[in-house]
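Progress note, sequence design subtask.
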């Protein structure tokens, strides 16, 4: 088993608890680490045996850009559910952050892990 990662996927969405955040799209950054059978894909050199990170990123861009959550915690849970449920990933680590949300800080967000690492 290995890990496939996706770093700094930037998506505009409605996220936040303040009134202005409910009407103004903001960028969230998404990082993923996903358990995958790297050896099988490497041996066959076939996309059919690999975790298709392009399909995952497209699905998440579509989902996140259409979403409207108050909390990054909720968004992270939904992302984990999509990755595990739709792409057959047994374990995922999801980081969702809102750059510039706190004055004086570059970034703020959450990190969750769901499932069992193979």
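Output:
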């Amino acid at each position: 088993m290995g890990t496939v990662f996706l770093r700094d996927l930037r998506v505009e969405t409605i996220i936040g608890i303040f009134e202005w955040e409910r009407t103004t799209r903001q960028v969230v950054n998404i990082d993923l680490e996903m358990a995958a059978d790297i050896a099988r894909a490497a041996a066959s050199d076939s996309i059919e045996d690999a975790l298709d990170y392009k399909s995952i990123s497209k699905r998440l861009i579509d989902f996140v850009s259409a979403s409207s959550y108050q909390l990054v915690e909720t968004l992270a849970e939904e992302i984990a559910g999509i990755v595990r449920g739709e792409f057959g990933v047994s374990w995922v680590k999801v980081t969702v952050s809102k750059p510039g949300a706190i004055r004086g800080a570059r970034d703020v967000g959450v990190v969750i892990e769901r499932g069992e690492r193979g």
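Residues 14 and 20 are 10 Å apart (CA to CA). Work on this subtask will continue into the next period as scheduled.
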